[in-house]
DNA sequence: AGAGTCACG
DNA sequence: GACGTACGTGACTCTG
């Protein structure tokens, strides 16, 4: 049947519909493997409607479902910022794009996309063809950009409101007829698509001007005549930009299409194809509905056990099936598989654990459970028994640079999700080889969001626990201790089995964990607090901080001398030489030789010689104080002034810590290798170590820290009005507490009283006990208990909070932060003497965890906030961020960073107390803090 | 490898 | 009524 009068063409804006379906529907996943299919399901429902309507009086005779083709369009050449504001499509939507094409074909409808053009252009061209052929055309879309096509038998149908829009409807919306819509849009611009337009002119004004001057060109030519100076100026100054805008919004109605309108004739779905597809997607309801409609029996969709339930293994692990990728052709096959899939599990093998130093040895990939490969890149051939064999490149491996050239576009492709276990590690490795891996998903972080507090989140733990599979131990390949080898020396055949298995495990964990985010209601935690932190931390770690090696070296020497002096003195007082660093020997000297009071302690039966014990003994004997001094110096030297020098990276000359994101159960980060979160500050001598952390010439270090963040959060969570008011009014919180508790005036407060109140405030955060407070304040336990009773009396909300939190933990097995992070508290089930630990941890976790969430949010927003400013975020110390800033930009940076930090809870959580940030700057960390 | 000690928030 | 306690980390040293 040729297209003409009496025919009715439906043009469905497929791409727009996918987004609508995605956002309107809850995130549905395919039960068997967790594939996200929410948008696909919505899309199928929409197509079903089209098919159902085909019998009605207004039925389409011809249908085309039109999609945007991926990649650039001709509009990007006209204006490089076109649609530049668009965020990339959500991770769980991307794999659904190809599936909606499949759905369209399964419904036996024409599925159309053309490279270099948007769906709108194809719709425009088809609409013109349909109109000129004398038929009716209905555009199924609510995109206002398509309104320019209306008229002459072309109408739009808003699929959501089920409303028809004709020429009158366009007038209503734009104030002009369809033929002038582009002129109005060119003037008004569009912030969503980043069409510039004329600043200060919206749709209303634009319509007014077009109606007055007839069309856009006349208006621009006669712009001088406009009376209002602002409008006149805007049009004159932006004439070129407006003309560009018009070219952006104007749709191409004259594309060369390689098919005819006739080919769009509507055909009934082929039952096998359609039901097969729906069965594949495991869409039972829809499948049944359609089967009934077609008078067929719905195919049985096996009720696959949900992946989240135990023993999900459809396929076992078989190391012999993993592929050794030996050449470019083999690699290309895998890249093709990845593009067909939309995601890939990736794992890198390297010569060590320090991402800043090690070399890449190989890469493993996995696209489907059991289907994994290893790409050896820098393995060294086995020299056999010949000790003098020169190291040679192993056979059957691709040149590293060639492989990376092939992989880089995939690793950076926004449409391909790269899944890893601790992706920060791999992303940093790839970054050093010139690939910015994005977007990413991380099974370690998925587990952290789901199971925080229950167990650690290393791959071995996760695999054994959730896949019931014990991975090949790395030790079996590398050996242990001194004789351990690096991964490049591992025979490739062995490496394939180990490395590919890791990628396989990672993919299987991802398929299991990802759908559980929604079930456990921690999607936001993962998406807002975990995943976006990865690139931020990677950046900080790679940047590192400058450390003055000579200053550390000088301090080490000074400490060594002082220690030698102290050691001699200690030996003399002890009466005989011994190892001062040995608590065992020290205990014997103190309690056996010198017969000082104090006893055994601990399961080992050894004497306890901790700082508090030695402090007590200092009144009895001269030696303990000397040992304390010696210990302090020993600590400073071994842990800081010596060790930090070894951590200076030879290439960058800076120190690069590594943050573990999933280490602490509360949501805090932990810094390792070296730990830069416990650099001394409390003692004068220790604090001098911070002088060695410096900024390069022309820059300074800037430190910003939250003031009393945990107490503020406690005040909010527990709803303590007195505390909240004090924070709102900027009062000294510890003095206020003291005044409230001991009935003393704020003026002329005794520092001792304030100190006690401060200790109580901290104690509350930790789940206070009489014993703990007594020990901290060195007061009788009865007295400490009296303080606590009084505190609860004055701030009754605290006690309620503690009881309710413990109750919640007992009932649910976890507690929550204000941002929804779940911290599991298995310790709460402990009976007997250990019960207190569980309770206190449960009380502390929401407070510490909420503070951790707040600074995470600030850090995640920081790169955008300081973009363009000469500032780099270097370190995080729980409530403090340290930046390296150009000297002349400090004030600007402090302003921006403080604003981000103080408002970090917004808009997810509205705190009832203000967050306050203090700032400092200086040539080194000691000055900045 | 585990205990003891001590650095930080 | 006794238990045995502040919360969260990481690094270093000694010891078996």
TrEMBL record:
Domain 3'-5' exonuclease: 322-518
GO BP: DNA-templated DNA replication; double-strand break repair
GO terms assigned for molecular function: 3'-5' exonuclease activity; 5'-3' exonuclease activity; DNA binding; DNA-directed DNA polymerase activity
Pfam family, one: 5_3_exonuc
EC number in record: 2.7.7.7
Enzyme class: transferase
Record's function text: In addition to polymerase activity, this DNA polymerase exhibits 3'-5' and 5'-3' exonuclease activity.
Subunit structure: Single-chain monomer with multiple functions.
Family: Belongs to the DNA polymerase type-A family.
The protein's name in its UniProt record: DNA polymerase I
The species this protein was found in: Halocynthiibacter styelae
């Amino acid at each position: 049947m040729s297209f003409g009068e009496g025919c009715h063409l439906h043009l469905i804006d497929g791409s727009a519909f996918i987004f609508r379906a995605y956002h309107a529907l809850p995130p549905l996943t395919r039960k068997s493997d967790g594939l996200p299919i929410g948008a696909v399901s919505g899309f199928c429902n929409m197509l079903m409607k089209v098919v159902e309507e085909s019998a009605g009086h207004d039925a389409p005779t011809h249908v085309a479902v039109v999609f945007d083709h991926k990649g650039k369009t001709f509009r990007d050449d006209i204006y490089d910022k076109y649609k530049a504001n668009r965020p990339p499509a959500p991770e769980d939507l991307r794999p659904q794009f190809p599936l909606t094409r499949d759905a369209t074909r399964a419904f036996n409808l024409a599925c159309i996309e053309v490279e270099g053009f948007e769906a709108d252009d194809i719709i425009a061209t088809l609409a013109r063809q349909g109109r000129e052929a004398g038929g009716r055309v209905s555009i199924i879309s609510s995109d206002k950009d398509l309104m320019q096509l209306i008229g002459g038998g072309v109408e739009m149908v808003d699929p959501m409101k089920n409303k028809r829009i004709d020429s009158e409807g366009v007038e209503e919306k734009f104030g002009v007829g369809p033929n002038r819509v582009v002129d109005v849009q060119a003037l008004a611009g569009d912030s969503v698509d980043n069409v510039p337009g004329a600043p200060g002119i919206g749709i209303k004004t634009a319509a007014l001007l077009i109606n007055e001057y007839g069309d856009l060109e006349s208006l621009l030519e006669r712009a001088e005549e406009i009376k209002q100076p602002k409008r006149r100026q805007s049009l004159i100054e932006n004439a070129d930009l407006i003309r560009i805008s018009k070219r952006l919004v104007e749709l191409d109605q004259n594309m060369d299409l390689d098919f005819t309108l006739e080919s769009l004739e509507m055909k009934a779905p082929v039952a096998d194809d359609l039901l097969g597809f729906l069965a594949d997607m495991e869409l039972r309801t829809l499948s049944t509905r359609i089967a009934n409609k077609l008078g067929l029996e719905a195919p049985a969709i096996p009720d696959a056990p949900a992946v989240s339930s135990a023993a999900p293994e459809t396929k076992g692990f078989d190391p012999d099936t993993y592929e050794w990728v030996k050449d470019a052709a083999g690699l290309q096959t895998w890249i093709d598989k990845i593009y067909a899939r939309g995601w890939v599990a990736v794992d890198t093998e390297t010569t060590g654990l320090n991402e800043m130093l090690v070399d890449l040895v190989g890469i493993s990939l996995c696209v489907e459970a059991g289907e994994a490969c290893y790409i050896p890149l820098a393995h060294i051939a086995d020299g056999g028994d010949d000790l003098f064999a020169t190291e040679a490149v192993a056979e059957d491996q691709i040149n590293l640079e060639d492989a990376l050239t092939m992989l880089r576009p995939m690793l950076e492709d926004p449409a391909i999700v790269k899944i890893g276990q601790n992706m920060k590690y791999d992303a940093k490795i790839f970054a050093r080889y010139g690939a910015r891996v994005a977007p990413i998903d991380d099974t370690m972080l998925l587990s952290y969001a789901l199971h925080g507090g229950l167990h650690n989140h290393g791959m071995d733990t996760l695999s054994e626990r959730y896949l019931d599979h014990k991975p090949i131990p790395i030790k079996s390949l590398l050996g242990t201790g001194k004789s351990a080898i690096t991964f490049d020396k591992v025979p490739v055949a062995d490496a394939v089995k180990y490395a590919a298995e890791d990628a396989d495990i990672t993919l299987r964990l991802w398929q299991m964990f990802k759908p559980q985010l929604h079930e456990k209601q921690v999607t936001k935690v993962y998406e807002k607090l975990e995943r976006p932190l990865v690139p931020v931390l990677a950046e900080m770690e790679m940047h590192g901080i400058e450390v003055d090696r000579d200053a550390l070296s000088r301090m080490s020497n000074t400490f060594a001398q002082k220690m030698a002096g102290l050691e001699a003195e200690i030996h003399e007082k002890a009466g005989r030489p011994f190892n001062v660093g040995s608590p065992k020997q020290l205990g014997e000297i103190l309690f056996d030789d010198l017969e000082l009071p104090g006893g055994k302690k601990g399961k080992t039966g050894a004497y306890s010689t901790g700082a508090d014990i030695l402090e007590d003994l200092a009144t009895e004997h001269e030696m303990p104080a000397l040992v304390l001094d010696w210990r302090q110096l020993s600590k400073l030297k071994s842990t800081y002034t010596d060790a930090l020098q070894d951590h200076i990276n030879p290439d960058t000359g800076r120190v690069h810590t590594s943050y573990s994101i999933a280490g602490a159960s509360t949501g805090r980060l932990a810094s390792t290798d070296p730990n830069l979160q416990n650099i001394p500050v409390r003692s004068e001598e220790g604090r001098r170590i911070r002088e060695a952390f410096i900024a390069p010439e022309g820059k300074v270090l800037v430190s910003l820290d939250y003031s009393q963040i945990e107490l503020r959060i406690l005040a909010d969570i527990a709803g303590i009005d007195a505390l909240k008011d004090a924070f709102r009014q900027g009062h000294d919180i510890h003095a206020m507490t003291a005044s409230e508790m001991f009935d003393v005036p704020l003026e002329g407060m005794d520092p001792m009283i304030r100190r006690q109140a401060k200790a109580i405030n901290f104690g509350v955060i930790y789940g206070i006990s009489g014993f703990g407070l007594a020990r901290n304040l060195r007061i009788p336990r009865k007295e400490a208990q009296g303080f606590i009773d009084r505190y609860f009396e004055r701030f009754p909300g605290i006690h309620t909070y503690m009881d309710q939190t413990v109750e919640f933990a007992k009932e649910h097995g976890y507690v929550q932060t204000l941002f929804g992070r779940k911290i599991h508290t298995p310790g709460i089930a402990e009976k007997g003497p250990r019960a207190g630990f569980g309770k206190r941890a449960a009380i502390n976790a929401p407070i510490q965890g909420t503070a951790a969430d707040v600074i995470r949010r600030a850090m995640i927003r920081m790169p955008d906030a300081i973009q363009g400013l000469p500032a780099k975020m270097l370190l995080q110390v729980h409530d403090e961020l340290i930046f390296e800033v150009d000297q002349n930009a400090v004030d600007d940076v402090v302003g921006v960073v403080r604003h981000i930090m103080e408002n970090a809870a917004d808009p997810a959580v509205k705190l009832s107390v203000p967050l306050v940030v203090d700032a400092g700057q200086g040539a080194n960390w000691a000055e900045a803090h």
